[in-house]
Write a structure and sequence with these properties.
The structure holds two protein chains of two kinds. Chain A is mostly helical. Chain A has four helices and no strands. Chain B has a three-stranded antiparallel beta sheet with strand order 1-3-2. Classes of the chains: A mainly alpha, B mainly alpha. The A-B interface holds A 16, 19-20, 22-23, 26-29, 31-32, 34-36, 38-40, 42-43, 60, 63-64, 67, 73-74, 77-78, 80-81, 84-85, 88, 94-95, 97-104, 106-107 and B 13, 16-17, 19, 71-72, 74-75, 78-79, 81-83, 87, 89-95, 110-111, 114-115, 118, 120-123, 130, 132, 134, 136, 139.
Chain lengths: 117, 161
Amino acid sequence: MISPVGWIIIWIGILFNLLGTVGLVRFPDIYNRLQTSTKCVTLGSFGLMIGIFLLHGFSQTGIKALICGAFLLLTNPVGAHALMKGSLHYGIKLWKESIVDRYGTEKLGGEQIEEKS
Amino acid sequence: MKYIIYFIIGFGLWLLLTLSTNLDHIIAGIIVVFLGTILFGGYFTDKPQKFLQPHRLFWLIIYIPVFIWYMIKANLDVAYRTLHPQRPLKPGIVKIKTILKSDTAKVFLANSITLTPGTMTVDIDGDYLYIHWIYVQDTDIDAASKIIARPFERFLRRIFD
């Protein structure tokens, strides 16, 4: 009974990973790309880990997969914050159709938005 | 005191990861966890006994399914924006104010915001958080806080504060 459920969750995870990759190609600037890659890849990889846990149960592999999933949930967003803050301070501008930049006006002296051409 | 608790948690994780009672593994684990404790134990929370109070654990267990539900919603939202031919995007960075006080709670709030629909934390400054929002609905501080942070603050305040 558990085995088909595990396979279904693994395939859902792979599907979300694929969507994250498509978003990486289609979205306009680094900030929107970080959004898709963080969200979809975190849930996709977490789904893979849960699927492996359901397939193997409380064996060595299963428990390792579960711990890996928990670490993914904790560390992936932190990496994304660091990348985003780093690129803002480095001076990469937001996409030209962004409507507001509170961080730029308060911390970096002016909105960091591309000029519309 | 907090170093000892950090050591016990780290060693428990090591035992779960190796799952063997082989003496070599246990000695290696003690050495590695001891080094980790010396290097990073100082960053551990000052009042570890707070996390053993039953009502905090109860709200944590309630929070996990809520969080996973928001994560699935976030992914469907991003999938919709990815596959829509016109790319419905209206991005921007807004500022919100949080009512949470402790540092641990703020870190968990920031991580929860990152993994939920269309929002991502850029920076924390005292009580204020800067959020990159993929489809800005409101640029006002209070209105944006109500939309982004309130659903999580209700739980996190009970768990960590």
